[in-house]
Amino acid sequence: MKAVFFTAHGGNDVLTFGERPDPVPGAGEVLVRIEAAALNRLDLFVRDGIPGVPVAFPHVPGADGTGVVEALGTGVKGPAPGSRVVLQPGLSCGTCEFCVAGERSLCVSFRILGEHVPGTFAEKIAVPHANVYPAPRRLSPEKAAAFPLVGLTAWRMLVTRAALRPGETVLVHGVGSGVSTFAVQIAKLCGASRVFVTSSSEEKRARARELGADEAIDYTTADVGKAIRELTGKRGVDVVVDSVGAATWRHSLTAAAKKGRIVTCGATSGPNPEEEIRIIFWKQLTILGSTMGTDSEFAAMLAAVDAGRLEPVVDTVFPLADARKAYERMASGAGFGKIVLKMNG
Ligand SMILES: [Zn+2]
Asked: 109 and 92 in contact (C-beta within 8 Å)?
């Protein structure tokens, strides 16, 4: 099969487009012929090499994918070959105390497609049957590839961890990332009364408003924390979605209302922000971590996508052979929504 892979960590020059052996589905696995895959920031980190996370070279990256079931391993009853499916990118052991409690992403040996095991930037992949879900019929392969990881991440952050309620207010930093485009939509779906976003790009601010954001702040000309306080009559917002980290953390603390919740799922600008503990205890804030999600969260998010209540946002589509261009686009930060790789394009 054709695949993108690398045999050493490094920059984009380590990415190779070439032949890899077809995977064979083992017991309990499903072989999927991938139609489209999508990039995540995780793929940049995996290419660079993540300390403490060794990969087996040659390594095929990619967490998100959609395609058609080609064959079933022993003991698997479905879905039938020919079915269109999307992949839940989180892999878990199924037996630890967290798995038994249904908390897949808390598994003591939690792994992600394309990070710890071969991923979706290939014409075929074999995955556990529990990771295979029906693809929404209304979506093209490009759109069906563009939501599993970020949709699941944003859903758990807002619905489960922050427990967003109707009428509350939300700030989403750095709109344009896959997680942020879903966070805006999920916040509105939950009944948020006002959703604020930030971006340095006028085009991204305009597109975020089209997605449902009520107000968009240019963080290059405004102090975001102060701007939120002014826009909310000094009250602040109930929930802050922060996947940016070092560059935004102090603004998150300032923007949060008394008893507000700050949810973090990433630190794209750096993991060690300047902290201000006095703000946390004085405002009685709750700081919530979140990583991907459970099967029931995935099913709920998928149902909302299926029903057209959430719309995957595709930035650009590249043929698999042009994966380096897709990685460059991801690294540039210029995109709005997901960067997709098409297998037979
Ligand atoms: Zn487990």
From this structure: yes
Residue 216 within any structural domain of the chain: yes
**12 and 34 fall within a common domain:** yes
Instruction: Check whether residue 96 and residue 185 sit in a common domain.
Output: no
Query: For 50-105, how does the pLDDT look when each residue is reduced to its tens digit (9 = 90+)?
Result: 999 999 999 999 999 999 999 999 999 999 999 999 999 999 999 999 999 999 99
- What is the distance in A from the centroid of ligand 1 to the CA of 107? 4
User: How many residues can be counted in the chain?
Assistant: 345
Q: How far apart are the C-alpha atoms of 74 and 291, rounded to whole Å?
A: 31
Is there a single domain that holds both residue 129 and residue 188? no
12 plus 27 within the same structural domain:
yes
Other beta carbons within 10 Å of 41: 18
Number of domains in the chain: 2
Identify the domain containing residue 165 by its residue range: 151-289
Residues 109 and 16 in one domain: yes
175, 73: one domain: no
Task: Report how far ligand 1's centroid is from the alpha carbon of 76 (Å).
Answer: 21
The rounded distance, in Å, linking the Cα atoms of 242 and 4 is 31
Q: How far is the CA of 317 from the centre of ligand 1 (A)?
A: 35
Question: What pLDDT is attached to residue 344?
Answer: 80
Q: Are 80 and 142 in the same domain?
A: yes
Mean pLDDT of the chain: 97
pLDDT one-digit tens code per residue, 185-210? 999 999 999 999 999 999 999 999 99
Mind listing the pLDDT tens digit for each residue in 262-299? 999 999 999 999 999 999 999 999 999 999 999 999 99
Ligand 1 midpoint to CA 214 (Å): 40
Within a domain: 304: no
Same domain, 250 and 221: yes
How would you class 28 by CB atoms within 10 Å of its CB: exposed for 0-12, middle for 13-18, buried for 19 or more? middle
Show Cβ contacts of residue 140 under 8 Å, excluding neighbours closer than 6 positions: none
State residue 137's pLDDT score. Answer: 96
